[in-house]
């Protein structure tokens, strides 16, 4: 359980995290989504006390993280930036962390096995690939058998097999009743594992919702229909919960609130010829983009590749 | 109390009673820091170098002295009134660099690699980490330093037996000087750790360490002589030297005063490091 209350972090003029209120509950995977620079990593750093909030507070399992007698048993965290000494072997790294809590060597061997690091445990961590580094970070996060697992961009740099492994791991941890909090800037990735979503942009909370609710809010499914007599079709479709939009003079309409099948039947009933009838599903990615459009820190521009621009 | 009890029963511990409970303690953090230190190659190499400098330079100095005497050539001023003790401590200047630099690495290395995030996530109260690092590494530097100067002295007193520089452990002040030199090297190690933690940069820590131990005395000599006489004995390097010098005069501190001043310097840097560790984001 993670509870943030008016959590705020300012670096000079810049506000990285701006009055966040949210609760991450046990037993499910909660996705923490936002564009790059939205304040996800800063929030996670504040949760485990690496950064102190400018104002507000965040509690883990009912207490400030530093107030726990055995912090590694409360929260296991994988941070985005590498947090290992490259000169130390994976095993020694984990053992050093285990010593602080008196965690036995047996548990270190266990997490090494769990993350598939057996063959490289004795090698210097600096020689690890990105994927191996992530696995070591996850091994460290699981070391204390924590009630809350928090992972910042865990699939970064993993191969497809690794990505699948993470997904299964996360759902498994949640099924055991743990709190699982996982950040990503990719909606498609999170949607596969998360039930609950916390969406941030420019440090502000944009949505605290479920995956299904987010799609519904984004408008659900839209049916595009092209008809011989759009004005007549519009009248025929009108009803409670139905919204029809279309430009004057165009034979195309966009309909929400009715299925393609229902629209086809209505058109047949009124003898209107249809040229096109297609359901367009709003993808989660689109819903996410809609939500964060105004909050994207660094907008890409495509004008640079237009021929005219290049000539100039 | 009765209001607290029910809420406790619903805590995570109650949901998973089978889970063993581990706690962070000072002794465990110390053990962790000890394990961290010796699981890096740089520790073995640099501390080995420190010991090598201490013993090798002490031996070289003694051989040089003996060969000058037997050849009958005129002596340098530095060598003329040399003692076995002074010659055997010849390596401390170099050893203090190696041991101080390793101290900086022990602390600042965690910042340059990002390891500090793992460390502080495990010990979010933070200060035990600094105390443990300083204690673990300080003890290593103390033991290595003491061992090194004793080996150098015992070897040198054999090499120099029969010359006018000859000395034995039972001579007045010798034991105190050797222990003082070991203690000095141990405290230099602690200062290295504190500088590394304070500046969070390997390069910065080493620069300040070298500057304060080797460059500042030279700079102070540019000051008017009345200022110089007041300030000079209290500089870290001069106060430290007073801990292991055999002879003391009006311009130097007594061994005890030197120890006190040097300990104060150490405590000051360590306090600065503690404040920064607690106050600033990692």
Keywords for this entry:
heterodimer; A: 312 residues; alpha/beta; Rossmann fold; Alpha-Beta Plaits; 2 domains; six-stranded mixed sheet; four-stranded antiparallel sheet; 34% helix; elongated; B: 282 residues; mainly alpha; 14 helices; 0% strand; globular; disordered N terminus
- SSE order of chain B, as H and E? HHHHHHHHHHHHHH
Tell me the total number of β-strands of chain A.
13
Mean pLDDT across every amino acid position of chain A: 88
Annotation field: number of helices of chain A: 12
Report Rg of chain A: 25 Å
Low-confidence stretches of chain B: 1-17
- Could you name the CATH homologous superfamily of the largest domain in chain A? P-loop containing nucleotide triphosphate hydrolases
SS content category of chain B: mainly alpha
Quick gist of this model?
Chain A has helices spanning 40-47, 71-74, 90-101, 105-114, 130-142, 160-175, 187-191, 211-217, 230-237, 260-269, 284-292, 307-311; strands at 2-11, 14-24, 29-33, 55-60, 75-78, 148-152, 179-184, 196-201, 204-210, 222-227, 243-245, 252-256, 274-280. By secondary structure, chain A is α/β, with parallel strands linked by helices.
Description:
Chain A is α/β, with parallel strands linked by helices. Chain A has 2 domains: 2-216, P-loop containing nucleotide triphosphate hydrolases (Rossmann fold, 3-Layer(aba) Sandwich); 221-280, Alpha-Beta Plaits (2-Layer Sandwich), CATH 3.30.70. Helices cover 34% and strands 26% of the residues of chain A. Chain A is built from 12 helices and 13 strands. Chain A has a 6-stranded mixed sheet with strand order 5-6-7-3-8-9, sandwiched between helices. The longest helix of chain A is centred in the middle third of the chain and has 16 residues, at 160-175. By secondary structure, chain B is mostly helical. Chain B has one domain (42-279). Helices cover 75% and strands 0% of the residues of chain B. Chain B is built from 14 helices and no strands. In chain B, helix 3 (26-38) packs across helix 9. Chain B is globular. At the A-B interface, helix 2 and helix 3 of A face helix 3, helix 7 and helix 8 of B.
């Amino acid at each position: 359980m993670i509870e943030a209350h008016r959590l705020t972090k300012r670096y000079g003029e810049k506000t990285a995290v701006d009055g966040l209120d949210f609760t991450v509950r046990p037993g499910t995977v909660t996705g923490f989504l936002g564009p790059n620079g939205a304040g996800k990593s800063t929030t996670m750093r504040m949760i485990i006390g690496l950064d102190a909030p400018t104002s507000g507070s965040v509690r883990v399992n009912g207490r400030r993280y530093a107030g726990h007698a055995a912090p590694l048993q409360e929260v296991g965290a994988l941070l985005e930036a590498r947090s290992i000494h490259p000169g130390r072997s994976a095993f020694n790294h984990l053992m050093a962390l285990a010593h602080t809590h008196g965690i036995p060597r047996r548990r270190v061997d266990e997490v090494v096995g769990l993350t598939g690091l057996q063959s490289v445990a004795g090698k210097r961590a600096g020689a690890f690939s990105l994927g191996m580094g992530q696995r070591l970070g996850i091994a460290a996060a699981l070391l204390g058998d924590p009630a809350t697992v928090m992972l910042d961009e865990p699939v970064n740099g993993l191969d497809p097999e690794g990505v699948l492994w993470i997904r299964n791991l996360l759902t498994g941890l949640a099924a055991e009743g743990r709190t699982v909090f996982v950040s990503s800037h990719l909606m498609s990735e999170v949607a596969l594992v998360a039930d609950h979503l916390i969406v941030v942009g420019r440090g502000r909370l944009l949505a605290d919702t479920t995956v299904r609710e987010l799609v519904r809010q984004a408008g659900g499914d839209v049916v595009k229909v092209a008809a011989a007599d759009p004005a007549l079709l519009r009248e025929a479709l009108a009803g409670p919960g139905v919204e029809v939009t279309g430009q004057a003079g165009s034979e195309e309409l966009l309909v929400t609130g009715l299925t393609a099948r229902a629209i086809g039947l209505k058109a047949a009933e009124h003898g209107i010829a249809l040229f096109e009838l297609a359901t367009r599903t709003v993808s989660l990615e689109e819903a996410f983009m809609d939500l964060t459009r105004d909050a994207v820190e660094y907008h890409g521009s495509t004008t640079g590749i237009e021929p005219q621009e290049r000539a100039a | 109390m009765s209001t607290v009890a029910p809420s406790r029963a619903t805590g995570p511990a109650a949901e998973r009673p089978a889970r063993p409970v581990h706690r962070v303690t000072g002794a465990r953090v110390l053990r962790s820091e000890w394990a961290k230190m010796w699981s890096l190659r740089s520790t073995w190499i640099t501390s080995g170098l420190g010991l090598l400098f201490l013993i090798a330079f002490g031996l070289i100095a003694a051989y040089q002295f003996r060969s000058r005497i037997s050849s009958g050539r005129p002596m340098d001023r530095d060598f003329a009134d040399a003692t076995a003790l002074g010659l055997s401590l010849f390596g401390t200047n170099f050893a203090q660099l190696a041991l101080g630099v390793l101290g900086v690495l022990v602390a600042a290395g965690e910042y340059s690699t990002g390891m500090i995030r793992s460390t502080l996530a495990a010990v979010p109260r933070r200060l035990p980490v600094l105390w443990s690092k300083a204690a673990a590494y300080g003890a290593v530097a103390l033991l290595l330093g003491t061992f090194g100067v004793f080996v150098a002295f015992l070897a040198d007193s054999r090499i120099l037996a029969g010359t006018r520089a000859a000395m034995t452990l039972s001579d007045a002040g010798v034991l105190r000087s050797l222990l003082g030199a070991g203690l000095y090297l141990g405290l230099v190690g602690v200062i290295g750790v504190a500088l590394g933690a304070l500046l969070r940069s390997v390069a910065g820590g080493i620069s300040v360490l070298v500057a304060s131990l080797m460059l500042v005395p030279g700079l102070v000599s540019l000051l008017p002589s009345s200022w110089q006489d007041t300030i000079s004995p209290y500089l870290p390097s001069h106060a430290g030297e007073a801990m292991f010098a055999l002879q003391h005069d009006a311009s130097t501190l007594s061994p005890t005063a030197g120890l006190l001043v040097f300990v104060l310097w150490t405590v000051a840097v360590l306090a600065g490091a503690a404040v920064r560790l607690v106050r600033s984001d990692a």
